[in-house]
Amino acid sequence: MAGADSPRRVVVKLSGNTLAGTAGDVFGEDALDFIAAELDAARQAGVQLAVVVGGGNVIRGARFCPTGPGRISADYAGMLATVRPSITAPSPCRA
After folding, report:
1. Which of 19, 17, 59 shows the shortest CA–CA distance to 39?
2. Per-residue confidence at 38, pLDDT binned at 50, 70, 90?
3. CATH topology assigned to domain 9-94
4. pLDDT on residue 68
5. Is 58 strand, coil or helix?
6. At 24, is the secondary structure helix, strand, or coil?
7. Pick from 3, 5, 58, 93: most CB atoms within 10 A?
8. Using CA atoms, how far apart are residues 20 and 24, in angstroms rounded to an integer?
9. What sign does the CA torsion over 90, 91, 92, 93 have?
10. Minimal CA–CA distance to 75: which of 90, 93, 55?
11. Residue 56: its pLDDT value, please?
12. For 42-84, what is each residue's pLDDT tens digit?
C-alpha cells in the first residue's frame, strides 16, 4: 500500500503523442504496454488512478485547418479524437 506521505489519488494526463508508435502509428503497442505496466504498478501500490487521455496522436485541429471558418470544425474533430485513445488505451490495462 502507498506510504503515509504518498498520494492516494492521482490524476494522470497522457498526451496522445505518448501513445503513438515510433513508426508514426496512431497507437504503438510498446508504448501502450509500457504505460499499462506503469499504471498497474501504481495501482498495486494502493494508488487510485484517474487517467485522462489526449487525442493529439489522432488529429490536431490547429494543424488540420490553421485558419478560417473550417478551424472550428477542425477543433471539434480534435476534441472528438480524444475519445478514440480513451477506448483503445485501456485494453492493455485490463489484462
Report:
1. 19
2. very high
3. Carbamate kinase (3.40.1160)
4. 63
5. coil
6. coil
7. 58
8. 7
9. positive
10. 55
11. 63
12. 999 999 998 887 766 566 656 666 666 676 777 777 777 767 6
